[in-house]
Amino acid sequence: MSTNPAASQKYIEVSAADLPLYCPTPAMALWNAHPRVAIPVEKLGEARCPYCSTLYKFTGELPKGHH
User: Fold this and answer.
1) How far is C-alpha 51 from the geometric centre of its chain's CA atoms?
2) What is the DSSP letter of 44?
3) pLDDT tens digits, 4-55
4) What does the longest C-alpha to C-alpha distance in the chain come to?
């Protein structure tokens, strides 16, 4: 276990199969929902939702056509 406070932040690993990525994801509870927003995780390798601050981290290879 890490004692780093940032480590307690929620993050979700996603892969090419999850693109295009939107938050909230279908797995998230409806009571915790916010307006659906695209998360451009494929651009930088990680991206944070502006509503709920969930951090998405891309794993694996990007699909063809993405930079």
Assistant:
1) 12
2) H
3) 444 456 789 999 999 999 999 888 888 778 999 999 999 999 999 999 999 9
4) 39
Q: How far is CA 21 from the centre of its chain?
A: 7
- Residues 23 and 52: beta-carbon distance below 8 Å: yes
- Asked whether the beta carbons of 14 and 21 are under 8 A apart, the reply is yes
Rg (CA), the chain: 13
H/E element, 46 = strand 46-48
User: CA-CA distance, 66 to 51, in Å (whole number)?
Assistant: 25
State the amino acid at position 19 in one-letter form. Answer: L
Residue 67, pLDDT score: 52
